[in-house]
Amino acid sequence: MAEDVYPVPAEWQAEAGVDASAYEAMYKAARSDPDAFWLEQAGRLHWTKAPTKAGEWSFDEANFGIRWFADGTLNVAANCIDRHLAERADTVAIIWEPDAPDEEPKRFTYAQLHAEVCRFANVLKANGAKKGDRVTIYLPMIPEAAFAILACARIGAIHSVVFGGFSPDAIAGRIEDCDSTLVVTADEGRRGGKRVPLKANVDAAVARASSVNRVIVVKATGADVAIGERDRWYHEEAAKVAADCPAEPMNAEDPLFILYTSGSTGKPKGVLHTSGGYLLWAAYTHELAFDYKPGTVFWCAADVGWVTGHSYILYGPLANGATTLMYEGLPNWPDASRIWQVVDRHQVHTLFTAPTALRALMKEGDAPVHATSRASLKLLGSVGEPINPEAWRWYHDVAGDGRCPVVDAWWQTETGGIMIAPLPGATALKPGSATRPLPGVLPQLVDEKGEVLHGATSGNLVIAGSWPGQMRTVWGDHERFFQTYFTTYPGKYFTGDGCRRDEDGYYWITGRVDDVINVSGHRMGTAEVESALVLHPRVAEAAVVGMPHDVKGQGIYAYVTLNAGDEGSAELREELRQHVRREIGPIATPDALQFAPGLPKTRSGKIMRRILRKIAEGEVSSLGDTSTLADPAVVDDLVANRAG
Ligand code: WTA
């Protein structure tokens, strides 16, 4: 099979920060003397006390632990703001583009960002937040989201950002898990012309989560919302506090943030990242993977509620003194030209978005793209899920007019930043491949037994050693951290992804091999959706699997067993879909829901998901061995009544 290879364009080769030979040299240096390599890289940051140690870690049970730069001291917000003031006070740090195209964008220079963040930090302090406290942030994509996040970092409070699409129950669970005392929200959010009742959702969440004693409310839309005893308007508080706020000196290993993410079992996990290693990883990967150069506008079109927004809207670009674009709205609203109009309006150099957005745009044809110039675009990035070669080519050929390399970046909430990705000035591209690991990343493919596989092959993707951006623990459950990631293949970090490596050493991520589904680039645990379904009084049992979806990548397919005697109906099916939406949020709404009188179980009562996945995929002729089922006849019924 002839393979498509896109060589490094001549102009990238000529001007690359890191070219092919520099990449090889860096990769070798990071592997042969990681301490020296990382202590040198640590010089990217401004330390109040420089570290003398790099990584100190063990993935083995006996002395399990991960620390980086542990004797160093720094403040993350000062690294993202203050240290740029001497040379870049008047450089725009954040461009904010509103939801509706007829509204004016806002721009904040580094000096203005400094003032806004100091003020927000003083409001947090005046309302009781201090170093080590957990602050939950439930905000739309407005500049205050950036201010609030950086304000936490400035005073050493640990932020836990909850995506604005999550329901009151999902917020409450996240508040309770980390005992947040303070919540920052807004009256309402806006997206694609629709309003999201953020304050009302927080009220419902806080009614249940008793740790919260203060809610700070940003006036975003001016909607009429209830302001109770616990609540304070941000603008009123901001008027009362001093303008300057010193940055709290933090140990490199002091926590920076918690971000909840779905796993294969149980409730979402609070992934904990610390200050020094995380920030270094965000800055290092932002510069390398995007060959970032000062003076260019960087647009990561994610939401700050996800790790991509943390690392590539805020921390990475700001640590590098870049101009980062924050967009409130949707790529295809009011129409499919919008994303490209934003590129033109702000002269975006690098666009970093998700395959699901590209597939949705692709459906609208090329005309909405051609209606715009995109002359400023030099680099394209893709993240969150495997990109199908068709979407890759459309991105490259149509959106990028064939002149912009595509950086397909593989990583996870747990990894803090990009792990496997081409460097635009160093790596020839193959559509659908995340290509090669960044210097310092040691990927391996292993078989079911944990044997390391060599050469061109497929297996499960593990990382053989630590890197600075690695998560440090699951909040409140260090044992779960160890059990989840380090026991499947002892001594290695297991990613949960399957992967192929080709003869050129390129990595091709094939998707999750566990019970996590990736819906529009968002992680969803099947167990979470199942728990939501069984909360409904008419549901006896539920099993959820992923199914192929041409825009979302994967959709959610639910099999539901009702209480004895209940036959279900089209109305109930819709009611259950809405029920999940209310319990978790719109992103968890099942795409297909099938009433199943019985589920395929082994004699010991374990649901055979392999069979459910095949049926959901429509692969009913290859169900494999069903003879070990307690009641093989249930399979015939499931096949006969497939949803869809
Ligand atoms: C998937 C998002 C293929 C993968 C940054 C991973 C990808 C999960 C890619 C993490 C990519 C992310 N190619 N798959 N370029 N990027 N994934 O934690 O399955 O929301 O394990 O982090 O997304 O999702 P998370």
List strands and helices in order, with pairings.
Blueprint: H1 10-15, H2 20-32, H3 34-41, E1 55-58, E2 65-68, E3 73-74, H4 76-80, H5 85-88, E4 92-97, E5 106-109, H6 110-126, E6 134-138, H7 143-155, E7 158-161, H8 168-178, E8 182-186, E9 189-191, E10 194-196, H9 198-208, E11 214-218, E12 231-233, H10 234-238, E13 250-251, E14 255-261, E15 269-274, H11 275-289, E16 297-300, H12 307-319, E17 323-327, H13 338-346, E18 348-353, H14 355-362, H15 367-370, E19 379-383, H16 389-399, E20 406-409, E21 443-446, E22 452-453, E23 457-463, E24 473-474, H17 478-486, E25 493-501, E26 507-512, E27 516-519, E28 522-525, H18 526-534, E29 539-549, E30 553-562, H19 570-583, E31 592-595, H20 609-617, H21 633-640
Parallel strand pairs: 4-17, 6-7, 6-8, 7-14, 8-11, 11-12, 16-17, 16-18, 18-19, 19-20, 30-31
Antiparallel strand pairs: 1-2, 3-13, 4-5, 9-10, 14-15, 15-24, 21-22, 21-23, 23-25, 25-26, 27-28, 29-30
Overall description:
This protein has 644 residues and is an alpha/beta fold. Among the domains are: 81-86 and 99-251, 3-Layer(aba) Sandwich (Rossmann fold); 520-641, ANL, C-terminal domain (GMP Synthetase, Chain A, domain 3), CATH 3.30.300.30. The strands form eight sheets. It has an eight-stranded mixed beta sheet with strand order 12-11-8-6-7-14-15-24, sandwiched between helices. The chain has a seven-stranded mixed beta sheet with strand order 5-4-17-16-18-19-20, with helices on both faces. Helix 2 crosses helix 3, helix 11 (275-289) packs across helix 12 and helix 14 (355-362) crosses helix 16 (389-399). It starts with 9 loop residues before the first helix and ends with a helix. 5'-O-[(S)-ethoxy(hydroxy)phosphoryl]adenosine is lined by residues 261, 306-308, 383-386, 408-413, 434, 495-497, 509, 511-512, 518, 523. This is Acetyl-coenzyme A synthetase. CoA binds at residues 191-194, 308, 332, 520, 581. Its cofactor is Mg(2+). Its EC number is 6.2.1.1.
